[in-house]
Model the fold of this input.
Amino acid sequence: MFPLSLRMKKSKKAFAAERKKPRLMKSGVRLEMKEMITERQSVRAVLLSPDGKILMMKVRVEGPDGEIWITPGEGLKYGESENAALRREIREETDFDLVDIGPRVWKRVDVFRIDGQLFRQSENYYLCRVNDFEPVPILLDEGIERQGFIGFKWWSVEEIRNSPDLFAPRDIHRHLSNLIEQSPHTVVRLGR
Done:
């Protein structure tokens, strides 16, 4: 057996060699060395109807996923509160005036690319109980946001569970089921 000092030097070299290789993030995004990551803070609405359906929007994404269902919401503007950002985003994306914002129920971190740029986004999800409404994407940005938008749908937990489509977060049906069955009392950290 090598002395401890030799083992440490050897492991440092192995570690340095490993750092030169591209890394694959948990999210499936490939990270090249010296690549800049833009940090973003985001808010999302869990718009839940009286019959237990959640409003989701389908968008195109870069990478192998292609298309994915997400909850409405997006990034905060400089100096904007989370509640103000959530109201603004819901209005822009659905033409619905969000009055009551409930508790923060979920949080998640995601890594993704938009037009080749790498983002690490911290997301806070707020429960918003609403009556059914017909969403209309009136104020989507002309660029990426409008090009990536596909459509809206109110989903039941069962429909999500049985769908072959991709959702973010992947196990949203399980967390949504918990929200419907019991009042939220803690913030749940979600996976990808």
